[in-house]
Design a protein that fits this description.
Order of helices and strands: EEHEEEE
CATH superfamily: Bacteriophage SPP1 head-tail adaptor protein
Strand content: over 45%
CATH architecture: Beta Barrel
CATH topology: Thrombin, subunit H
Shape: globular
Largest sheet: 6 strands, antiparallel, barrel
Number of helices: 1
């Protein structure tokens, strides 16, 4: 594992006046980063996805998050794959609403 991503979790709370507020928190995990394969790129593209990276993390580090931050950019996790050796592959894309820099 030669890189780090931040797995993001969103929490929605409601104040006394009924206004909802979203709080994003995260935790850093070590990972291996690869580009998606051509087959993944074109296969996911047919479904309207824009795949970019595959992040491999230790299985115990992943808790079902659907967003991650990689070098200041937010990505949506659209697919996961559990490998035979206790690792989880997170397939991620940038798309509308997640293209901006995270705070």
């Amino acid at each position: 594992m030669d890189d780090v991503i931040r797995l993001l979790t969103s929490t929605i709370t409601q104040d006394d006046e009924g206004v909802q507020h979203t709080t994003v928190s995260g935790r850093d995990v070590f990972c291996k980063v690869q580009s998606v394969t051509r087959a993944e790129f074109f296969g996911a593209g047919r479904s309207g996805l824009n795949p970019e990276y595959v992040f491999t993390v230790f299985r115990g580090d992943y808790a079902g998050e659907i967003l991650l931050d990689y070098h200041g950019r937010t990505y949506a996790i659209y697919r996961t794959y559990l490998t035979d050796d206790d690792y989880m592959e997170l397939y991620a894309e940038r798309k509308g609403g997640t293209n901006g820099r995270s705070e």
